[in-house]
């Protein structure tokens, strides 16, 4: 199930500074510079690591500490990966007053949070608005305020809230055969936890995981989400990764600082993805301004995977402060061309070979005019690190499932 985010009006409101005209005595109701809003989290897409994609129910205290250690040791923390997120299967039972305990895999959640914080990192956790999580563990239904307070007392910085059993146990039971009413119940459940989180006074990134249902991008921000899953689950398979990318086209207007579309966590380094597929997956998540939550086995990460995950140039595309999600500009057969507008007037261009049947006899020819560009464009090929000039009609040969990712600082 997917996550989404919202952002409060306070977070969205720009802060203006006015210079009083000469001879104008500042009235008491003159606009004042506003302090930063208290919960301005996720101003760029959240970056970190999440236990689910590789460890699933094998996650435990030791594994989370090891992931935190590795984020530091590998340089991933310095590259921007700060959230260490525990996914499903940490939950134990509630005590007589309803306070949730972690299960035996997590003997002391507060001590774990302190450890993660001591590394200069932040810690995330997972729950469901239903009675049970997707893994069948204790959910938050009827205990939203209590759970939010518990997370805050532990020092939690991020919550992924996964619809799971809320579908069958609440939506379908309370509103049988009425999909619209079911969706209203779903939205209200996400709003309820938003209020509970805000009441703690702690800045907590709020990640909606309800699989993109009911066009969550249209209401996720208003419901308090900082990110919302826009699709079902990712898998470490090229076909699934590309299917998800395909569903992101058209959602770009809904993303921005504090509220992001979430095409799900990274599978870079998982399964049998080829080097090209790992590169393309990471490049496209950057073009999509997607949260970058690595989901691999950090203690056993291969150097080539670390090189992809820590590529500063590609991360800079993802984390660009303008926060504009990229768009698919055109596709031609098995090739697609995406662009993303960046701060300072720069442009990122990604050309992807989705298949494997174009050869040098009939290479793909790049059409710069379709990208709104005129004449040769000087840029940097982000995966070779070399200067490149893109020209109109340029023949491009890309290996199967590979990408050409170019940053143009001064597009014409
Ligand atoms: C799914 C969710 C996954 C993972 C899993 C845990 O619904 O999409 O990312 O959180 O539940 O049970």
Note the main attributes of this structure.
alpha/beta; 9-stranded mixed sheet; binds beta-D-galactopyranose
Question: Overview of this structure, please?
Answer:
The chain is an alpha/beta fold and 412 residues long. The protein is 29% helix and 20% strand. Mean pLDDT is 92; it is low at 1-28. It binds beta-D-galactopyranose.
The percent range for strand residues is: 15-25%
Alpha plus pi helix count: 13
Sheet of most strands: 9 strands, mixed
Bound molecules: beta-D-galactopyranose
Radius of gyration: 22 Å
Overall residue-averaged pLDDT value: 92
What helical percentage do the residues reach? 25-40%
Global morphology:
globular
Question: What is the terminal separation in angstroms?
Answer: 42 Å
**Which regions are unreliable across 5 or more consecutive residues at pLDDT < 50?**
1-28
Could you give a short description of this structure?
The protein is of the alpha/beta class and 412 residues long. It is built from 13 helices and 19 strands.
Topology, element by element:
Elements (H helix, E strand, L loop, with lengths): L3 E2 L3 H4 L34 E4 L1 H4 L5 H13 L2 H4 L3 E3 L5 E4 L5 E3 L6 H10 L3 E6 L16 H11 L3 E5 L3 H9 L4 H21 L5 E5 L6 H4 L5 E5 L8 H11 L11 E3 L12 H13 L4 E3 L8 H7 L2 H7 L8 E6 L2 E7 L5 E7 L10 E2 L11 E5 L4 E5 L4 E2 L6 E6 L4
Helix pairs in contact: 3-5, 6-8, 7-8, 10-11, 11-12, 11-13
The structure holds beta-D-galactopyranose.
